[in-house]
């Protein structure tokens, strides 16, 4: 009982501390290396209490991160010839190992934490987030000094009307709340109280306030996938109506954008360019150029492994970053990992316990959409987002194990 209570409190404090910890952009710039150090320090202590039943999820993740770590050896050697060894290089090289340690630590911590407790912590975090987001957007002039000191980069004026919350960038923020939304989306089948409904809507709203087009797409796809998985006829009807509404909107894009132009929102201008004039979209073209750049470097050097750690490279999408860091093997390994984790989710979805079955649905949706959600940036390897991703991997490990030992 004592160990259980300690793990409970440790998870609560560490989860909230890591996600809410300041980025100090005036000091650190765009770097979040201090967050990586914090995550490592928080993750080390639970490893002294390791007692894990090895299952297929654990083995798959161990194989994936081991392969990634091995593939980084030639990439690191390439960088050593023209760069000084520093903390950022070390953490960049050891990233797969650090993520695996974080994952292992979270499995140990949350194994005895009830799902009700986990969802309670998530509710607290979302309530804090939605409150902060409204202050960040609508009251920025009154608290800008504090927000710029703790989280938001002052020179990024394009983010002033965007809810980056505690993560510094629109798609970082969008990814966190998209991930939480997938958990609460299925939770509504089991728990329909007002707080659960509010947090589900709030997490959805936070994704839209982030104005990340890729994560908004991921949310819409998550709802559609859940509509297919759900046993609720009412929800299936809602999803069908939503699908037809989207199709109708796509057929009348010009009229829609002409209507919303009067609100002078940068998000809709950017979305209009992306959907109607894609050749002029800086965001789309920039990411395509990054993929082409990384691919050409790898194919001209060594197709099997990567060409560097990508510390000084602007490579945002997972395809470009993984191609540069891990080579062609790394790209295909990520796709294979998503496939196998999806299969394990399907197995866990046959569990007798309703809460395990519903949680498995959420993680299935999240895993299926990883190749989409990571197109903005390879966030499963980045700072606070890697911690949240490890949290999802840990949840899958535990739900899969419980489904096999009921």
TrEMBL record:
<feature type="transmembrane region" description="Helical">
    <location>
        <begin position="197"/>
        <end position="228"/>
    </location>
</feature>
<feature type="transmembrane region" description="Helical">
    <location>
        <begin position="57"/>
        <end position="77"/>
    </location>
</feature>
<feature type="transmembrane region" description="Helical">
    <location>
        <begin position="121"/>
        <end position="140"/>
    </location>
</feature>
<feature type="transmembrane region" description="Helical">
    <location>
        <begin position="160"/>
        <end position="185"/>
    </location>
</feature>
<protein>
    <submittedName>
        <fullName>Uncharacterized protein</fullName>
    </submittedName>
</protein>
<feature type="transmembrane region" description="Helical">
    <location>
        <begin position="234"/>
        <end position="253"/>
    </location>
</feature>
<feature type="transmembrane region" description="Helical">
    <location>
        <begin position="10"/>
        <end position="27"/>
    </location>
</feature>
<feature type="transmembrane region" description="Helical">
    <location>
        <begin position="33"/>
        <end position="50"/>
    </location>
</feature>
<feature type="transmembrane region" description="Helical">
    <location>
        <begin position="97"/>
        <end position="114"/>
    </location>
</feature>
<feature type="transmembrane region" description="Helical">
    <location>
        <begin position="363"/>
        <end position="380"/>
    </location>
</feature>
<feature type="transmembrane region" description="Helical">
    <location>
        <begin position="322"/>
        <end position="342"/>
    </location>
</feature>
<keyword id="KW-1133">Transmembrane helix</keyword>
<feature type="transmembrane region" description="Helical">
    <location>
        <begin position="291"/>
        <end position="310"/>
    </location>
</feature>
<keyword id="KW-0472">Membrane</keyword>
<keyword id="KW-0812">Transmembrane</keyword>
